[in-house]
Amino acid sequence: xAKSSLSFVxxxxxxxxxxxxGKCEACGEWNTLxxxxxxxxxxxxxxxxxxxxxxxxxxxxxxxxSQDAPRLSxxxxxxxxxxxGGFVRGSVLLVGGDPGIGKSTLLTQATSMLARAxxxxxxxxxxxxxxxxxxxxxxxxxxxxxxxxxxxxSVEDIVSTLSEGAVPRLIVIDSIQTMWTDTVESxxxxxxxxxxxxxxxxxxxxxxxxxIILVGHVTKDGQIAGPRVVEHMVDAVLSFEGExxxxxxxxxxxxxxxxxxDEIGVFEMTGLGLREVSNPSELxxxxxxxxxxxxxxxxxIEGTRPVxxxxxxxxxxxxxxxxxxxxxxxxxxxxSMVLAVLEAHCGVxxxxxxxxxxxxxxxxxxxxxxxLAAAAALVSSLVxxxxxxxxxxxxxxxxxxxxxxxAQTAARLKEAAKLGFGRAVLPESARGExxxxxxxxxxxxxxxxxxxxxxxxxxxxxxNREPRDATSVEKNATPARFRRExx
Length: 487
Ligand code: TYD
Ligand code: MG
Known about the structure:
The chain has 487 residues and is α/β, with parallel strands linked by helices. It has 3 domains: 6-39; 71-278, 3-Layer(aba) Sandwich (Rossmann fold), CATH 3.40.50.300; 283-485, 2-Layer Sandwich (Ribosomal Protein S5, domain 2), CATH 3.30.230. The protein has 14 helices and 23 strands. The protein has helices spanning 46-51, 77-83, 103-116, 130-139, 155-162, 191-208, 228-233, 280-284, 332-346, 371-382, 409-418, 448-458, 471-474, 479-486; strands at 6-10, 16-17, 33-37, 71-72, 87-88, 92-97, 121-125, 148-150, 170-174, 211-217, 236-241, 248-256, 264-270, 273-276, 295-302, 305-317, 325-328, 353-359, 391-393, 396-397, 403-404, 423-427, 441-445. The relative contact order is 0.10. Thymidine-5'-diphosphate (TYD) is lined by residues 97, 99-105, 136, 139-140, 269, 271-273.
């Protein structure tokens, strides 16, 4: 009988140790080691394995024909945009997201679309009973779609069932943490089980050409729980984000072997499931606080698509020794940098003020191009000066206070003009790129000092102003999101 080998496996990164220890030396996380039985991923004893002669296989050329199109459109434009044009045959995708964010809804809709288009689409639920999945499909108005449904958790049973008949074009496994395989003895949900189950499913996908979507849970700190190891094995990792209290959901590619990783797909959760939002700017600007100091519209780019979004700032004097800096939807270190540049080069004293910055609508901005809009919103709040409501802002701020050009100036301006904006504040050096046919009034800025002076000239002295309520800034900043993003 094979000797069972117990070891301690880090549930974060998968590193294995002979004895328990408090800290994982591989990833530096504390208290992540759990005891697991790692008796071979294959049940064959080592003595037999080493004697087995390797099987010979045929070598192929790079060119060659596959019968079906290599990519399969899901029928949902926003989903296709994130995957890079549809599901690639034989590829495995991991979709992560908080519980209740809408992963099962999204994938039920995707499988139904494919099934209705005549493809074999399979939905395996390891979490919900058949009746629950049916209930959801009914709510979504998809009960008539010929999706093949099962509530199963044994990977061997799933692989053996799906090997029968035509190869499925899409298989959804909801979720990978509930799957288990006979080849390892640890409990379902442990790293060893998740890794072995994912490996078996990936092997099946590569062998048959079926596309597989694995659903993965996310821990409180925003990582796909347990199966960090799975992230390395799959072809693409998509993360489904949003605030439970808000309608918007954003699907983002974190890793993609077959497409770009900077594209986002925008959805709205409605009573009838997820609705695709093809023009996100309209959605993000739909609840603008017109005429409030401290708000600026940023003309951004997400992937290939321009997205306009409102940045909201609140600068309030503080009684704390260390003033508070809180930011939602943007990089906190970028905010610190913008604040430092404002202090050092523009004489804007913020050390006695709490600073809050929020990106409206639940979007998370990653571009440095948002610097200028953030600075404008901050100064506007500090001096209580309302910015022109028809202006958009974009540009990167360097440590010396110079406003630097950013990519895709023309696309940003075009989107702003399309949405009815009248002027754009942009880097001086990008003026050449900005074609005049958009009809926007351009206000090129060479240095941050100029912007500060322009906004200050519109301001009213701080002393005669009524205390302002903070709700406009914190409207989208739910406590949960603040805690998560600011620790
Ligand atoms: P679900 O897809 O079950 O989330 P996940 O699989 O990521 O855990 O979605 C659950 C939430 O979505 C639930 O709180 C209700 C909401 N919802 C709607 O608002 N409308 C709908 O049509 C459906 C099906 C769900
Ligand atoms: Mg679910």
